[in-house]
Design brief:
binds S-adenosylmethionine, Rossmann fold, globular, single chain, 10 helices, 273 residues, 7-stranded mixed beta sheet, two-stranded antiparallel sheet, alpha/beta
Length: 273
């Protein structure tokens, strides 16, 4: 982690420090100096529903001032996929940390008018299979309060729900709720990603997307390349999303037909791409 990151975490570990950071960021934003940190929105027309919803979100919460883990271009790539996913259902995020990705996924649901976001996390530093999950020590052992703070600040509470626990133990709650977008970003060990994929992918609706973050991590890449690519019930997306994001569609004939864009859908796609 850079010295900037370390200093940020040190300051953010106290209530007074967080107040100072918030005031500082608000000041920088007011002077226009934080604009360069904004997510790269050039590819979206500003009156596009997703762009409008993201602008609204960023007027309430700024990604540079929230302790998210995804670089902006990857976050935007994932959010665009979530928006474009053509089927009905919910979004499930495995590994939510303090909720920055969660509220961006919720913004995509809001812009698209489709489903809710279920964020699954222990929200605590946990050890399993020898992997240490992201340390929550700087939040007093649990990121849950910070997660709720992020969600409240976003104004998207209605669309966001937290499942507190191990990812492998929460899937039964979705027995009756099809998932349109499954985002896997929890335990990045080979066995962890495999367990998450095998536990949750049966709940994904035909035509829904399964998206892995941190494809650049060796274990994630090895699992995807060895066990996900080439499965007959999964279809790779045409074109590359981002080198660190791997996305695949759960295929079905009816869903394939539904994905064949109609004229208005083609026009919308031209705006987004
Ligand atoms: C990389 S962080 C998620 C980052 C978040 N998506 C973002 O970009 O800001 C991984 C999260 O997964 C959680 N986690 C890891 N393994 C888990 C498991 N087996 N069950 C539940 N949560 C887990 C950790 O607590 C941590 O918050």
């Amino acid at each position: 982690m850079s010295w900037i990151g370390q200093s940020y975490y040190k300051i953010a570990s106290t209530r007074a420090g967080r107040g100072v950071l918030r005031a500082g960021l608000a000041g920088l934003r007011a002077c226009g100096l934080l604009r360069e940190f904004r997510l790269p929105l050039e590819a979206l027309a500003l009156d596009h529903p997703l762009a409008a919803e993201l602008q609204r979100l960023w007027s309430r919460i700024h990604w540079a001032g929230t302790d998210g883990m995804m670089p902006p271009e990857q976050l935007l790539a994932v959010v665009r996929l979530a928006y474009e996913c053509p089927v009905e259902g919910d979004t499930v995020e495995l590994g939510a940390w303090v909720g920055l990705t969660t509220v961006h996924l919720a913004a995509a649901c809001q812009a698209r008018g489709r489903g809710d976001v279920f964020a699954v996390d222990t929200f605590a530093a946990t050890k399993e299979r020898g992997t240490t999950y992201a340390s929550a020590a700087k939040y007093g052992g649990s990121t849950l309060a910070r997660f709720h703070e992020t969600v409240r600040a976003s104004g998207l509470e209605r669309r966001v729900h937290a499942h507190v626990g191990l990812t492998t133990e929460m899937a039964d709650r979705h027995r009756d709720r099809p998932i349109r977008f499954l985002f896997i970003d929890a335990d990045h060990s080979y066995d962890g990603v495999k367990a998450d994929f095998e536990t949750w992918s049966p709940h994904v609706a035909p035509g829904g997307l399964i998206v892995f973050h941190d494809y650049a991590i060796a274990d994630v890449r090895r699992f995807v390349d060895e066990e996900v690519r080439g499965q007959s019930w999964l279809e790779p997306l045409p074109g590359r999303v981002d080198p660190n994001v791997f996305a695949i569609t759960k295929s079905s004939e009816p869903a394939r037909r539904a994905r064949t864009p109609s004229r208005p859908a083609l026009a919308a796609a031209a705006i987004v791409r």
